Amino acid sequence: MAAAQVLRSEWTKLRSVNSTALTLGLAIVVSIGLGMLISALVNNDFKKMSVADRLSFDPTFVSFSGLTLGQLAMVVFGVLVVASEYSTGMIRTSLAAVPQRGTFLFSKITVATLLALAASLVTSFAAFLLGQVMLGDHSTTLGAPNVLRAVFGAAVYMTLMAVFSMGMAAILRSPMLSLGILMPFFFLVSPILGSVSATKKVAQYFPDRAGQKMMQVVTPPNDVAHYGPWGGLGILLAWVAAALVIGYALLKNRDA
Amino acid sequence: MIELDGLTKRFGTKTAVDHLTFSVRPGIITGFLGPNGAGKTTTMRMVLGLDNPTSGSVLIDGKRYDQLKDPLTYIGALLDAKAMHGGRSAYNHLLCLAQSNGIPKARVTEVLDTVGLTAVARKKAKGFSLGMGQRLGIAGALLGDPRILMFDEPVNGLDPEGIHWIRNLMKSLAAAGRTVFVSSHLMSEMALTADHLVVIGQGRLLADTSMADFIRNNSRSYVRLRSPQRERLLDVLHEAGITVVETGSGALEVDGGSAEQLGELAASHHLTLHELSPQQASLEEAFMRLTAESVEYHAHSDPHRTLEPGQAAEPHRAAEPHQAAAPESQPWGSSWQQKNRKGA
């Protein structure tokens, strides 16, 4: 069957370039390492925290602190998977081999998504478990209410950030342009707009803000979001779907 | 068999390919010739479905490219040598192409051997020279053992050894009954390899002819005369009803005349000749004459010319259809044509 052939081909493409192992490896190491560091610091400073902060303390979310930086490596992974086809000129060879452009794009994204999910699951479980070790007395367990959902939520969040980046790269085609838009957005624009009260109401619907609701167990006191973890998943999925649909429509009609 | 029917591609207001209709027949090498920017690459990209035609169609064995199941087994193409991910090894590059078209793994090793890249199969493509990249691209084209092969300017930038290799490869592919469609902007290159010729200029079809016919119709032969009694010789030739082209260097050229006849004519009038030599214009000149009007980026040709071959039309000249068909305007490169004749 043709789709199976293309899936196999895309898997070969993915595993045969260094950037795959590099970006996913970086995402895992940074997320876990930074998460452990912040968890240890929070554990030390716990006594100095205000009562309000102590009451809304979310040990699960604290152990995922490294994901804010690790997700950027996932974004790079997603962008490179798609945009490197264009920057290297491989796209012409690829589309000559698989002229059904939908099959080509979605096979590529399927394979890359599955790999990203595997890496994200490793990241979220390792970050949680090692983070709890660092939190010592203030830690929680996987068996506690909503914790397992949050750990899976973190994995789904990271995966969907990669898929969103793939869709954006399919729209923009250039890796530099895609990264130049996505990196500052997720690293600077979204966190800043999300903490300024005037823009909070809009920023809550950004893909990363919405997706991060999935990894919270305790709702922060100053949260303005009108949705819970499942609502957050829905909003992030809508962003991903929009990026993929536009990316596909452009690929289908554009000259390669 | 590749069939183009009214194939047209416009980019904004610029028409890159303009109602092209021709077929590439099986079992021979068809040369696709045109000056830079004539629309050769755009045409080939439309054959592969990379660019969507504005109108018209192109069919491969009666089907649109995207209707082909496992297209690499129908048609293999080399568009540019660098259409690959530099971070991937030659072997993996070919492997992912093979897998996408259900081609067995063993074939990858086979084509690497055919193009002589076995030793560097595990090396990353970004370290490859242009020639090696070209070979890897050709390996990709041969991968599916297709009946049709399409190469876009395959000898561009190659060293003599690489050029020789590609020429022989194309000949052996055609000898094995395959269809070879190869583009070039060099007439001399085509004269060595192609059996059939399709010439385009500014996206329009200028000629669709066998190589032999093209050579017969377009190689201008003339006799060059040089005499210290130039004015008298001109009078004598004029009286005999023979058209003369004066070149800048003082030599006279007679199109289609025979050296014997001209020599005897001069002798009967007791004229001294310093030169009486039959000349044959190159195919390159013929190609330039054909595409003269459609060349997109002109170099300035020499304006100080006395008599134009096309302008000095006289009765006996009209009997030669290929000469009469020569464009009225100045062919580009005419200045070096003169220089060339001077030097010859």
SSE layout and pairing:
The complex is a heterodimer of chains A (256) and B (344).
Chain A: H1 2-15, H2 18-45, H3 51-55, H4 59-63, H5 67-88, H6 90-97, H7 101-135, H8 147-172, H9 175-195, H10 197-203, H11 207-212, H12 229-253
Helix pairs in contact in A: 1-7, 2-5, 2-7, 5-6, 5-7, 5-8, 5-9, 7-8, 8-9, 8-12, 9-10
Chain B: E1 2-11, E2 14-24, E3 29-33, H1 40-47, E4 55-60, E5 75-78, H2 90-100, H3 106-114, H4 130-142, E6 148-152, H5 160-175, E7 179-184, H6 187-193, E8 196-201, E9 204-210, H7 211-218, E10 221-226, H8 230-239, E11 245-246, E12 252-255, H9 259-268, E13 275-280, H10 283-291, H11 315-318, H12 321-324, H13 334-343
Parallel strand pairs in B: 3-7, 3-8, 5-6, 6-7
Antiparallel strand pairs in B: 1-2, 1-4, 8-9, 10-12, 10-13, 11-12
Architecture overview:
The complex is a heterodimer of chains A (256) and B (344). Chain A is mainly alpha-helical. Chain A has one domain (2-174, 188-253). Chain A has twelve helices and no strands. In chain A, α2 (18-45) packs antiparallel against α5. The longest helix of chain A is centred in the middle third of the chain and has 35 residues, at 101-135. The mean pLDDT of chain A is 94. Chain B is of the alpha/beta class and 344 residues long. Chain B has two domains: 2-216, 3-Layer(aba) Sandwich (Rossmann fold); 219-343, Alpha-Beta Plaits (2-Layer Sandwich). In chain B, a hairpin with a 2-residue loop joins β1 and β2. Chain B is elongated, with a radius of gyration of 25 Å. In chain B, 41% of the residues are buried. Residues 302-344 of chain B have low confidence and may be disordered. Classes of the chains: A mainly alpha (256), B alpha/beta (344). The A-B interface holds A 2, 5-6, 8-10, 12-13, 16-19, 84-85, 88-100, 253, 255-256 and B 45, 48-52, 65-66, 68-72, 77, 79-80, 82-89, 92-93, 95-102, 140. Chain B: GO terms for molecular function: ATP binding. Chain B: Residues 297-307 have a biased composition (Basic and acidic residues). Chain B: Belongs to the ABC transporter superfamily. Chain B: InterPro entries: AAA+_ATPase (IPR003593), ABC_transporter-like_ATP-bd (IPR003439), P-loop_NTPase (IPR027417). Chain B: Residues 2-227 form the ABC transporter domain.
